[in-house]
Write a structure and sequence with these properties.
This protein has 324 residues and is of the alpha+beta class. It has helices at residues 3-13, 18-24, 46-55, 58-72, 79-88, 97-110, 116-125, 132-145, 147-165, 238-260, 283-298, and strands at 36-43, 171-173, 176-181, 188-192, 198-201, 205-212, 219-229, 232-235, 267-271, 274-280, 311-316. Strands 9-10-1-11 form a four-stranded antiparallel sheet, covered by helices on one side. It has a four-stranded antiparallel sheet with strand order 2-3-4-5, covered by helices on one side. Helix 3 (46-55) runs antiparallel to helix 4 and helix 6 (97-110) packs across helix 7 (116-125).
Length: 324
């Protein structure tokens, strides 16, 4: 690598992690055809909305009320600003972009039972460095502000364990439910989602495993609940269940929306929680396409009634993303 290459990378890194900056250059490589333009909708904070909705608790509803209020009036503090206000012990209205990013990292990284490791990993991905003491403080503050999450994690774990002990019986946890079939693929735990889809954890059982401590490098034997995942075995715990049911439900919302928009014949792509359409480069066509896209993304079905959905819809001749 030449001195010029090193200088370029150093300059590039001033804007954050190189890998993250390079990832931002992938989308602009997708452009609209001649006389056309791209519009796309991004489900706003979809996982942060789905998780408390699945919890089906008063505490979860309070979180959803924050989304409902901010959706109706974007000038009011959003969920990230409120969490940043909790962290810095100030009025959420005083939170600016920097602290808001820390609030965002806390919301997105801690909802699935993660602790300082998950928080630090996501912060790094956002180009944020957090001192260890601050990491611990953020985790503790978020959990104190969101006791509903701990209650839901415990409910998921208890329902799963009860199902394993009582094959064929159904055990609910919030808006999901577990049932264990001891005769299917050497014992499979199923989790039914509100949309009707079912997650499966085949060959699930308690096993002794060698676990390496990443800090010390030492290994110890632990008994864990594990299941077959791909060609290997993965550990099941309350955080895994919370993550799985949330992401699977969000995935169902994306898929049903794609089916809902199929009649337009101009949906050209989707990326994670975004849907991309290509339409005529004409103000009337663009306005109509944006309106239809937003309506299709924000509409509920019977199975997700009460879940507040919000889509940010953008337009450009090339595909990019807003940074908020």
């Amino acid at each position: 690598m030449t001195a010029l290459d090193n200088a370029f990378l150093d300059r590039f890194a001033e804007f954050g992690p190189v890998s993250r900056n390079l990832s931002w250059l992938i989308r602009p490589a997708l452009v609209a055809g001649p006389g056309r333009t791209l519009i796309w909708g991004d489900f706003s904070s979809i996982e942060a909305r789905v998780l408390p909705w699945l919890a089906a608790s008063p505490g979860g509803e309070k979180v959803l009320d924050v989304f409902r209020t901010n959706d109706a009036d974007p000038s009011l503090p959003d969920i990230y600003e409120i969490e940043a206000g909790n962290i810095y012990k100030c009025d959420p209205k005083e939170i600016d972009k920097g602290p808001r990013q820390i609030g965002k990292v806390a919301v997105l990284s801690l909802g699935f039972g993660g602790s300082v490791g998950a928080l630090g990993a996501m912060a790094t991905g956002y180009g944020i460095y957090l001192e260890d003491d601050l990491k611990h403080e953020i985790v503790e503050t978020w959990r104190q502000s969101n006791p509903w999450a701990r209650t839901f994690w415990d409910a998921l774990w208890e329902a799963a364990l009860n199902a394993l002990e009582s094959p064929g019986a159904v055990f609910p946890a919030g808006r999901v439910a577990f049932v264990y079939d001891s005769s299917y693929i050497r014992g499979t735990l199923f989790c039914a989602l509100p949309c009707g889809r079912v997650l499966s954890y085949p060959k699930i059982r308690w096993e002794k495993r060698e676990i390496e401590d990443k800090k010390t490098g030492k290994t110890e034997t632990r008994t864990q609940l594990v299941y077959t995942k791909g060609y290997g075995r993965a550990a099941a715990w309350f955080g895994k269940f919370a993550e799985n049911v949330t992401q699977a439900t969000a995935g169902s919302i994306l898929r049903r929306t794609l089916v809902r928009l199929k009649r337009f014949d101009d949906v050209v792509a989707h990326t994670h929680d975004e849907i991309v359409r290509e339409t005529e480069d004409d103000p009337v066509w663009i306005a109509a396409a944006k309106s239809a896209l937003r309506a299709g993304m924000e509409a509920n079905d019977d199975w997700d009634a009460g879940l507040p959905l919000k889509a940010e819809v953008l337009e450009n001749w090339y595909y990019t993303q807003s940074i908020k």
